[in-house]
Structure formats: structure tokens, C-alpha cells
Amino acid sequence: MLKLVIGNKNYSSWSMRPWLALRANDIPFEEVFIPLYTDDKADKDRILSFSKAGKVPALIDGDVTVWDSLSIIEYLSEKYPQVKLWPDDRARRAHARSISAEMHSGFMPLRNECGMNLHRPVGAVDLSDDARANVARVQEIWADCHSRYGKEGPFLFGAFGGADAMFAPVVHRFRTYAIEVKGEARHYFDAMMSLPAFQEWTRAGLAETLVIERFETV
């Protein structure tokens, strides 16, 4: 069985992405949880025992190890083509991969100013101009996908797929920091909030008791 090494569900947005790709598509896997930022050498050594990158998530498939959320999603798309993590149509697939890569490498102001923390009481913060631009761009992506593909399902390309897994943590950030989601983008936000796998991750994150002080400053 596949093993997915993840960090704290309350904080680890990168872990959430491949976890959702697996759970939402009913792909069986064993979850290996390693708490992050505990200053415990044993925890760090456990992560290194799975991946020399020293970070989560990591996917273990027999003698194959894949790390980095987007790489894991790509691996899963090849191993389970029937799941269709990427659209069949080449143009749509290119679109899905492009917005996924944009999320993977961008939006740093939003990430820095609205860290993932499910425990945080819902409430707005003053965002920089750059973070507000990130918010607008995310909603532009969601609205554009809904206008193009919304008749085929509630997610970015109809059915839940790899691009949705990449954008899922942003839904939590918008919720936690009371960021208004407008127009056609709202359809996507509501669909993700209603996804059973998304709700399962949320419940588990809220049940965690470990507090990482460095992430409690916002």
C-alpha cells in the first residue's frame, strides 16, 4: 500500500494537497504523521528516513519515493490514470497544470500574511497590496474556470482533480482570514468547503492539540 508522510493537519498546507488527491479519489494509502517544528531530533530523523529532502509530504510506493506535493500528484496521475487527476483534453490539461504550477511557485505575500492555521479564530487582517493582488488573482482563476467548465461539475475542471488539490489550502486561508469570495469564484469556494475529504482533513486538523508558536503570530 502507498504511504503518505505528512505533517500537522492544522498547519501543513503542502501535506494537505496530495492527501486530498488520494482521499477524494478513494485511492487507499497509509498515513504516516510526523509532527513539525518540535525541535525533536527524532522527528527530524524520521522525516529524513523517508526523504533526504527533509520535508513533508513524501509518498512511498515500494522502492519509489516521491517528494513535493505537485510531483506526488503527477506520480499519482500516472499510476492511477483512471482517476483522471488531470483533464483528458490536452488544452484543458495544460491549463490545469499551468494554474497548479502558478500556485506551487507563487502567491508568497498571501502565504506569508495568511498562514494556514485551522485553529485560528476567523477574522480579517490588514493585507499588503501584494497580498490583495494575490487574492484577486486566485479569485480570477476560480471564476475563469467556473465560466469555462462549470457546466461539467463544481470544481475547477468539472470533477475534483489535481488542480483542486493544489488550491484547496487557499480555501482555508480565505475562510480563516475572512476574505470575501465574490461572484463566480464563490461557487468553487462553496464546492470545496462541501467536499467530504476536505471536511475530513479539517476535522482532524481542528482535533490536533500541538501548537507551533511560530505560526500563531498572525
TrEMBL record:
InterPro entries: Glutathione-S-Trfase_C_sf, Glutathione_S-Trfase, Glutathione_S-Trfase_N, Thioredoxin-like_sf
GO molecular function: glutathione transferase activity; maleylacetoacetate isomerase activity
Pfam families on file: GST_C_2 (PF13410), GST_N_2 (PF13409)
Residue ranges of domain GST N-terminal in the record: 2-84
GO biological process: glutathione metabolic process; L-phenylalanine catabolic process
UniProt keyword annotations, A-Z: Transferase
Top-level taxonomic group: Bacteria
Family matches, as PROSITE patterns: GST_NTER
PANTHER family: MALEYLACETOACETATE ISOMERASE
Protein name: Glutathione S-transferase
